[in-house]
């Protein structure tokens, strides 16, 4: 497996009406919802490691500590960068930052574990 500390990836998205707090039920405002930001952050972490994962493995998120520090309007372009900061066996730790055209809107510390999907699903 070629998962090494320092791997990073950046993704962008445009905030749509389905990404808003009112749509997610996390508030009444038509602004980028915290749950949408968290999902985008987690998706960016997955994109960071997916090209280097061993065939037949996957990863699952088990923790995300997030701060959503600034609102973004519908139409804003969100840029998210995830960096793999620690590899401890199957435990992967990421630092993630999101921004819009006006600057930083949030950051997170995220942990994922590498799993065997068949074994994982058999335990449910």
Automatic annotation (TrEMBL):
UniProt key word Transferase: yes
Domain Fluoroacetyl-CoA-specific thioesterase-like residues, every copy: 15-116
Alphabetical keyword list: Acyltransferase, Transferase
Binding site for substrate: 61, 112
Protein name (Swiss-Prot/TrEMBL): Dihydrolipoamide acyltransferase
GO molecular function, one term: acyltransferase activity
Keyword DNA-binding listed: no
Binding site for CoA: 61
InterPro entries from the UniProt entry: FlK, FlK-like_dom, HotDog_dom_sf
Entry-linked Pfam families: FlK
Catalytic residues (positions): 34, 42, 68
Organism, as annotated: Labilibaculum euxinus
